[in-house]
Write a structure and sequence with these properties.
The protein contains 13 helices and 21 strands. Helix 11 (442-453) packs parallel to helix 13. The longest helix is centred in the N-terminal third of the chain and has 51 residues, at 38-88. It has three domains: 1-68, no CATH class; 93-210, Alpha-Beta Complex (Smad3, Chain A); 246-511, Tumour Suppressor Smad4 (Sandwich). By secondary structure, the chain is an alpha+beta fold.
Length: 522
């Protein structure tokens, strides 16, 4: 067999596949070939490197080309998926047309879902969509009712948010800042208003009008007293606080009979406030003022109504008017008798106080879950976990409402609310989940303030207690609970109403000082 001369070997390392234990001999042969003729080996290696570089360049070009092809495929695939997604999120022409009348520019997605949900319901009724379009396009022209079926609880869910249907669509097409159904009143031509509680509910936004906040009459404060100091024209009964507050339970159907018997009152009777021997306001008014119902012409009540000094010349009295403050309320959070965190100032008419942990300074949300307290015990910790969605406080048309959003009840002590229902001033009302209660009425407060001026400084000063509302979460207090005072409850808030407090301040400043003397040793 012919063997080539040694200098003809190129010096490449030959590495045969290592199969069935033949790696040893292959390695030896490889070693023998590689060590022949070192000079040729160096030259061959250089030549090989050049060849390999060329090969690598070609390989890199091929890989880059392949990657470009892959990117094109991925881009085309992404574009196709995007097109497919847009097909599934297609907005119908009817929805687009109705959205053209939407008011405001907030919550576009929510408004679109609300309108889309409505269109699906109205498609089942012949001519309903056309009637709604006619109402929206010609606001000044009479239109028919546009109705949808009423749900079991009366509410409609849109994108995980529940609300009353007529409020939702009035917010979409007329008033983006609408907060509550208490701000709406149906027109006489509407046959299916929400308040009628029929099987159908009219959602035509032009079948409702917005209730404006009433203009409160000024309080007339005498510049000079026409009666002897300490002797009021009307006798004011100052009642000491009971050892334990009474308790009442509230639901959507009103206060239950057990609660009424507990508080020794009867809601619904106009004389219930007068007949309650525990009320310090029993001599101030013959009947409690009714809930606010605006007159058709929008005029406010006569400023001389409500027990002011009618015979006093205008030059002898000072008119003290009500003014809306920048913040309608402030909220302080307490655990037992210790205040925790900073005071929350309410400049938004709708505020939610919940147990969650959002650290941002939202003007419409006060999160108690983010607040820390080194003195917190296990009872407080457990109670805080059950606050959940908490309470929704909203201020509309001069009235304050509390809506329980939590899965546990909330407990409210509001002297203004107790006065309206004829309860003892310190009564604690239990509000179950899903229920809403009016806890303050500016008009009733205005009437009481006007009448208290005739009673002197002390009677007016007593009304400061009416401007503070206490509310506990989960745990109650009072005669039916082992906690006698709100400072014994694990988690509670104190709400100060700025408008009434500022009004009181102006009146008290005008009145001067109390007539009853006090000494340093009394």
């Amino acid at each position: 067999m012919y063997y080539p001369p040694a200098d003809s070997y190129t010096g490449y390392r030959v590495t045969p596949p290592q199969i069935n234990g033949s790696s040893s001999s292959s390695n030896n042969n490889s070693h023998h070939i590689t060590n022949n003729n070192n000079n040729n080996n160096i030259c061959s290696t250089s030549s090989s490197s050049i060849g390999n570089n060329n090969n690598n360049h070609s390989l890199t070009t091929a890989i880059n080309s392949s990657r470009m092809d892959t990117d094109d495929v991925e881009s085309n695939t992404s574009s196709a998926m995007s097109t497919l997604g847009s097909l599934f999120s297609f907005t119908s022409p009817a929805v687009k047309k109705l959205l053209g009348w939407k008011q405001g520019d907030e919550e576009e997605k929510w408004a679109e879902k609300a309108v889309d949900s409505l269109v699906k319901k109205l498609k089942k009724r012949k001519g309903a969509i056309e009637e709604l379009e006619r109402a929206l396009s010609c606001p000044g022209q009479p239109s028919k009712c546009v109705t949808i079926p009423r749900s079991l609880d009366g509410r409609l869910q849109v994108s995980h948010r529940k609300g009353l249907p007529h409020v939702i669509y009035c917010r979409v097409w007329r008033w983006p800042d609408l907060q509550s159904h208490h701000e709406l009143k149906p027109l006489e031509l509407c046959q299916y208003p929400f308040s009628a509680k029929q099987k159908e509910v009219c959602i035509n936004p032009y079948h409702y009008k917005r209730v404006e906040s009433p203009v409160l009459p000024p309080v007339l404060v005498p510049r000079h007293s026409e009666y002897a100091p300490g002797h009021s024209m009307l006798q004011f009964n100052h009642v000491a606080e009971p050892s334990m507050p009474h308790n009442v339970s509230y639901s959507n159907s009103g206060f239950n009979s057990h609660s009424l018997s507990t508080s020794n009152t009867s809601v619904g009777s106009p004389s219930s406030v007068n007949s309650n021997p525990n009320s310090p306001y029993d001599s101030l008014a013959g009947t409690p003022p009714p809930a606010y119902s605006p007159s058709e012409d929008g005029n406010s009540n006569n400023p001389n109504d409500g027990g002011q000094l009618l015979d006093a010349p205008m030059g002898d009295v000072a008119q003290v008017s009500y003014a809306e403050p920048a913040f309608w309320a402030s909220i302080a959070y307490y655990e037992l008798n210790c205040r925790v965190g900073e005071v929350f100032h309410c400049n938004n008419n709708s505020v939610i106080v919940d147990g969650f942990t959002n650290p941002s300074n939202n003007s419409d949300r006060c999160c108690l879950g983010q607040l820390s307290n080194v003195n917190r015990n296990s009872t407080i910790e457990n109670t805080r976990r059950h606050i959940g969605k908490g309470v929704h406080l909203y201020y509309v048309t001069g009235e304050v409402y509390a809506e329980c959003l939590s899965d546990s009840a909330i407990f409210v002590q509001s002297r203004n609310c107790n006065y309206h229902h004829g309860f003892h001033p310190s009564t604690v009302c239990k509000i179950p989940p899903g229920c809403s209660l009016k806890i303050f009425n500016n008009q009733e407060f205005a009437q009481l303030l006007s009448q208290s001026v005739n009673n002197g400084f002390e009677a007016v000063y007593e009304l400061t207690k009416m401007c503070t509302i206490r509310m506990s979460f989960v745990k109650g207090w009072g005669a039916e609970y082992h906690r006698q005072d709100v400072t014994s409850t694990p988690c509670w808030i104190e709400i100060h109403l700025h408008g009434p407090l500022q009004w009181l301040d102006k009146v008290l400043t005008q009145m001067g000082s109390p007539h009853n003397a006090i000494s340093s040793v009394s």
